[in-house]
């Protein structure tokens, strides 16, 4: 059906027409700021539990020497997050290590650089959160333990075993976008709890007020909110032609708080195409760097979709 100005008055004064995939009617202006027709970011995160999500917990470090303690989480196939990590810094040559032996030892061990990417002896840590990455070519499936290890005396200051059955977090593949106004993509990927990858996205750019949109439930509605485009802007979407884009959810919002992602005409409240974010698909996605309290990367490299699986 057509949504023409004479039949449906736009919410923000836009003119033009939208071809509707699903018509939702006008409804109440829930979440709109009086006077300027702009939507506030009124969708709030659900519960505190997800805000504390650090990935898949592996276990606690054994507390053997030099006040080492903390909890260890798998963030993805190569990344560990140390939560509330403590070490007094007084060991002569302590480093992070992973290894393949049945218990921590120098045999089959590989040094892991610290959170700054440095290969120097560990400094003092006081209840800190940090991420470390396994050496290139290794994943958590290749190692059986992680430890704070003293090279000089070959002593384990504290360690945790990594079970062979560990299912580390990984991106989730969803359905593709299909809709009107040329909306099309390959299957969406939830890269982490706050990042969406939309591969080969297309949209004809002819609607007056199309936005990237998220909300609760399976179907888009005016109760949702816009999310910034790949450049961080919230202006109406331009034309896209098979462009792979990365989108970041605003503020503290995560994929656990929403039920769908859509291309939505805000002026005419029309759905141009959407994808449902099923709970079952999101049970083991990686946490975002922001959720871990880690400074975000300057940019995200775009890989082939097959790289994630």
Automatic annotation (TrEMBL):
<keyword id="KW-0677">Repeat</keyword>
<dbReference type="InterPro" id="IPR019545">
    <property type="entry name" value="DM13_domain"/>
</dbReference>
<dbReference type="InterPro" id="IPR052126">
    <property type="entry name" value="Spindle_Org/Thrombomodulin"/>
</dbReference>
<feature type="region of interest" description="Disordered">
    <location>
        <begin position="1"/>
        <end position="37"/>
    </location>
</feature>
<dbReference type="Pfam" id="PF10517">
    <property type="entry name" value="DM13"/>
</dbReference>
<feature type="domain" description="DM13">
    <location>
        <begin position="55"/>
        <end position="163"/>
    </location>
</feature>
<feature type="compositionally biased region" description="Polar residues">
    <location>
        <begin position="12"/>
        <end position="22"/>
    </location>
</feature>
<protein>
    <submittedName>
        <fullName>(African queen) hypothetical protein</fullName>
    </submittedName>
</protein>
<feature type="domain" description="DM13">
    <location>
        <begin position="170"/>
        <end position="278"/>
    </location>
</feature>
